Every structure is written in C-alpha cells, then in structure tokens.
What does this fold into?
Amino acid sequence: LKMSWFWFYLPLHLLVMACLCHAIKAPTTSSRQSFKTDLFNFYHSLLLADGKETTVHLLKDIPKRYYFVLEEGRGLAPFTITVTPCDVPIEWSLLVHKASASFLGKAARGDHDTQEISKSQKAPSMVSTVFNFKGNSVETYMGLSPHSALYILEFLSTERDTHITVYLTTDTTSGHLFPELPSDPRLDVIGIGHTTVTLTWKHSPSVLQHKENTQYCLLVNEKHNYKSLCAAETAIRSSGMKLPPTLALSLSPYLLEPQQVMILSNSELSIISKASSGEVRQICMGTKNTYTVPNLSPSTQYYFDVFVVNLLTNASAAYTGTFARTLEEPEPKVMELKDGKVIQVVLDGKKQNFYNLQYQARHKKIQFTFQLCRGQVQVHITKNGKTVALENITGLKYFSLKGKFLDTYLVQLRSTEESNSSVKVQVSPSFHKPSFPLLPDSLKIKSFSKLRTCNSVTIAWLGTQEESKYCVYKKKIEEDQVWTELRSADRCSGPESRHKSEKVLCKYFYDVNLQRAVTTETIKGLDSGTLYLFDVYLFGSSGIPVRYHSKVVKTRKKC
It folds into this structure.
C-alpha cells in the first residue's frame, strides 16, 4: 500500500479520457452534467501528502479540494485522516471515485494496455460521499478501502478566511504522529483557592510509552476553552499577541516576542502573553499529570486546557477543557486604632497583602505618626472613602489631617519588597503631646576618617532644640556580616535588645540654634584593624526610642 505520485500525471489524464468517452456516449443530460462536475473537481484538486501534516488555507465560501489514491493490495487498505480546524467551524467531506479496480491499480503503476482502457470507458465513474463533518473540533476518520480508489477531500469555511491542518496516513503499523489521549480525556478540578486552582488528568498512553519525547502543556485564559492548540494560537495572535509556533517550541527563549514573559523554575516553563484582551498563560510541566496553577486573581473565572505534545513532530492532542472560578477574597481584617496608643505591625512581603487600620475621629484635627522599623512600607490613608495620603515612608513620618467630628479614616499598610517589613503606628489629636521624640533633619551618623586610630574612632550626629537622651552602642562584626547587619536592623527596637557589653555611653544635649545642635564622641579601647557597628538611640520625653542609621567603621591596622 503506497501513494503513487505518478498518478498525478499520466494515469489521471487516462482516467479523465475514459470518463470523457463515456460521457460522450451518455444518453441523458444529467449524466453529462455529473461528468462535468467530476471532471471539474479532479482538475481543481491538489495531491495530499501521505504521512505528513499539511496546512490548508481556506477563503470564505470557496471550497478547496485535495485528493489521494489508494492502490489495490493484500486485503483491505486502511487509512486515517485527521482534520484540525484552527479557528472557526468548517465543513469537510470525504468522497470516493470508484472505477475499474484493475484499471485504477494498474494505471497508477503505468502497466495498463489499450484493451483495459477500453473496458474502463464502458464502466461508469461514480463519486459518492464517504464521510462529512461540520464543526471546530478535531475529527479523525478511519477507513478501509477494499479496492483501488481515488479519494477527494473537500473543505469549506462559511464564516471567514481561516486555516486548518490535515494529516493523512496509510501506514498504520508505525508510531502515531499525534499523541494518544486516554479513554477518559477530561480534566478534573481537585482544589480551588483564592489565587490557585489544582488540576489533574489521566496519563496519555504516549507519555507512558515515550516519556522523553512527550510532555503536557497547560493553557490558562479568561475567555473560553480551545479544542486544539492550533485554535488557541490563532485566537491569541488575532488579539494582538504573537506566539511561537507551538508550546513545544517555546522552550527556546529567542522565539519569545516583546509582549511575552518567560519564567523557568522547577523544570516548568511558563509563558505569559499580554494583550488588551487579557492574559494567556502557558505552562509546560513535563510529564506531571497534576498541577496547581498559581498567581490567579480572586473571584475570577478561568478556562483550562491541557495538550499532550509530541516533541519530535510538534503535533498535539487536546484533553477536554474545563473551567473554574477562584474563591472570593475574604474581607480584610480591620484593627481599630485608639487615641495615643502606639502599635507595631509586621507585614508579609511575599503575600503583599494590605494590613488595615481604622480610626474614627473624635477631634477635627488629628495626626498620624509612622515609624519605619524594617524594610519598605507604603501607607495609604483614606477619609470617608477618599484618598488623603499615599506615600512610601522612610524613618519617621507625620501626617497632620483636618476633617470633621466622627470622620472615618482607613489606613492601609503594605510591604513594597519581598522580605517582611514592620512599622509603628500612632494616631492622636494634633494638640496631644507626641509620643515620638522630636527628630533632627537627618538620622545619619558621621565618622571622621582623619581622626581614626588603631584603637579609637570619632563619630558625630545631629541633635534637636529639645533636650533629649542619646545612648551609643558598639558591636564587632566581620566583613561578610556588614550587609546583613545593615539590612536586618530593626530601627524601632531600643537598647533593651542589646547586650550590656555593647553599651558605650549615654548623654543629654540640645541647642536652641539648630546650626550648632551637633555632638561628637570619641570611642576608645577598640581593637586595631577591626570593623565596628555603631548605633545611636534617641529618647524623647515619652521614652519611645528612635534609632539612628547604623554606621560601620574600621579602625586602622597600623598606626
């Protein structure tokens, strides 16, 4: 059993000549019209390749035809045709042209003679429909040809211009171009969260037999399911995005377009394609048949499609898609703020959730105070639903606001980095004596390089017009500890968290003239060539400490 390319040239014309002779002798008008139709179809058909996937472009309302020939061989001649619509529904039909079995077989081989042609001229040619289908799903026809025959495939798109893929094979003994689906090709949703959906599906026989050449790829979107990978890619392109040819080939980063983001982690490839119509996420996870889709939006319906992909041929088969709606985001917990009370809030940087504080004003003028302890924090304050402040804070920050009695203020706090952050918060009437000390213009500690010796360093810091207490602490550190110490320092913690041996001194000072509100201190008794971390704590009248920015200084090695 094989395809005969020679049939395209001499044998087909012989067959047409035979049909023509028969048509001349035909006594009825209907016979002549049938002949003309058959002849037109033959001349406007293309040869369909065997064992190869063919892409067919269709124009709206214009049929397109392909033909192939099966020769007479031993017993029945099996063949398979798979048609994959890549966009809109199409109509397609398989027709067979039956003629003299011996003539078709020998004509295909070129060993015919004049007597046989004469016999074939007397045998009426007949075209009959074997199979027809209308829709946008992948459809496979499996047939058996008991004799030599010429088959015609006719395709028609009535909605718009589109393209499809067609795969014909007469070799049913070798491996399949398309991966096989299990007997139950449905996706099962086994878990739904606020931002995750967990899916599972039965293994493809192709994955079990050829693990190294097959993988699963998942498509996630908010519009609808796709019946083929070809259809999904066409829809994504039409929405303004450009995709690599298939998910299987997307393993090459250079195939990505600017609208795409590729994430590779834990042997999983994710490609996120963005367009005005939404986001399409593609994940290839190897041969795992259970997967939890992360980073979804709460209370949103998503559609999930799984494709098993042959990495050698790039052909794919689609499981039956499913959909699921993520859970609604729970109402955020709101903590009530009380006048004058200081609270410390720890924010989870990984979850990026808002921490909510609420305050009902008992005075027209109020003041919010925020002291950043660690990390980076964004503060968003609304009054009766309207934004009155939105800012990333550093150090100590005051917001003085004016409103009406019983106005409701909502404070939302969020860490702006992945590590945890923390902040102290206080709200009080504007005339209330602040719990936090009056701060200088800068909380930096300065060291004097020229005054460094082998066993001492001199540091300086700014003070205020208000008499306050300042305590100095030191700590030996190694070179590789500098970044960690500076990064992890809790600027809200007081000296109570330090070891007693680290305390250097405490002193009081102030100056009415801010230009002169500067103090210096020389710390002696240090080791030569050693790194030291110096901290200064400022205490106000309320006793709440504010920590200056830590300073790392190294003593001279030789003096």
About this structure: The domain at 445-554 is CATH 2.60.40.10 (Immunoglobulin-like). The chain has four domains: 36-99+126-169, 177-242+278-330, 334-428, 445-554. Residues 112 and 125 are 18 Å apart (CA to CA).
